[in-house]
């Protein structure tokens, strides 16, 4: 048994890591900063530290504190070649809860036309810090919106309704419980173009072999994610097919020890 203070300190350790992670987890982001942003290699690490700490001060998401936002996993998603091909052909991709817009920069660097990319986040501060991180305020022309996808009274995202073909939603659904996830899915469905046949939502988030609630959140395996999208479909008059894969990842904690996370990589296609 540990004291309340110790539990808080352990939570802080798990949320925030001072040292950069292993190279395999940041190599793509490093390459992006060097070859897209044009930042000299010897300036990248201090630049990353500065902007990361500014972002963590906005909100202490573990993906920021533990550098996970630099793991541009999207390039390894089986659907990534499709995303590039479809956006080059005119399809519009929306990055939901885009944080500092790292996935959008990777897509643009890999050839996706900026005019076919969109992003939104709850906090404008993250979008502004994205310009600082990638040093592209005058050249990155992707439109961003801000708003609360769970607040029906918030009209900040209404301009995106009926405009997109593909939605990337990573590390987003797992922040919420089941009911909120259903409402979130309903909101995402409204972003799709009317009558679109090849709509897809894809991403990666924390998962679990045994689905259920945990600290106010609901974590999924493939079966529970299908049930979620069945309910979303019933509420929106649509049908969806989920394909998902669970994997495990070890996080090494500063000071010793490891935390094993289950991750679920998924794609949800209109049936």
Automatic annotation (TrEMBL):
Residue intervals of the Methyltransferase domain:
94-195
The alphabetical list of record keywords is: S-adenosyl-L-methionine, Transferase
Q: Which InterPro entries match?
A: Meroterpenoid_MTases, Methyltransf_25, SAM-dependent_MTases_sf
Q: Any keyword Aminoacyl-tRNA synthetase? A: no
Pathway-wise, it operates in: Secondary metabolite biosynthesis
Name the SUPFAM superfamilies on file: S-adenosyl-L-methionine-dependent methyltransferases (SSF53335)
Pfam families recorded for this chain? Methyltransf_25 (PF13649)
Top-level taxonomic group: Eukaryota
Quote one Gene Ontology molecular function term.
transferase activity
Q: Which family does it belong to?
A: Belongs to the class I-like SAM-binding methyltransferase superfamily.
What is the protein name stated in its UniProt record?
Methyltransferase domain-containing protein
Q: Organism, per UniProt?
A: Cercophora newfieldiana
């Amino acid at each position: 048994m540990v004291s309340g203070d110790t539990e808080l300190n352990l939570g802080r350790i798990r949320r925030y890591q001072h040292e950069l992670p292993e190279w395999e987890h940041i190599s793509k982001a490093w390459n992006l900063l060097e070859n897209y942003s044009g930042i000299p290699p010897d300036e990248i690490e201090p630049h990353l530290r500065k902007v990361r700490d500014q972002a963590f001060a906005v909100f202490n998401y573990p993906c920021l504190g533990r550098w996970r936002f630099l793991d541009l996993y999207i390039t390894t998603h089986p659907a990534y070649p499709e995303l590039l091909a479809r956006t080059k052909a005119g399809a519009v991709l929306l990055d939901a809860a885009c944080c500092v817009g790292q996935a959008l920069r990777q897509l643009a660097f890999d050839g996706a036309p900026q005019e076919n990319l969109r992003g939104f986040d709850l906090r404008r501060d993250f979008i502004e810090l994205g310009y600082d991180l990638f040093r592209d305020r005058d050249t990155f022309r992707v439109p961003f919106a801000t708003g609360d996808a769970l607040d029906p009274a918030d009209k900040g995202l209404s301009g995106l309704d009926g405009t997109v073909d593909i939605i990337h939603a990573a590390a987003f659904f797992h922040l919420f419980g089941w009911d909120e996830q259903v409402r979130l899915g309903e909101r995402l469905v409204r972003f799709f173009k009317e009558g679109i046949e090849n709509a897809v939502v894809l991403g990666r988030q924390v998962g679990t072999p045994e689905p259920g609630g945990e600290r106010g959140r609901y974590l999924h395996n493939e079966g529970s994610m299908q049930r979620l999208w069945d309910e979303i479909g019933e509420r929106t008059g649509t049908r969806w097919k989920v394909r998902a894969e669970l994997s495990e990842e070890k996080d090494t904690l500063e000071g010793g020890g490891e935390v094993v996370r289950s991750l679920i990589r998924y794609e949800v296609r209109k049936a």
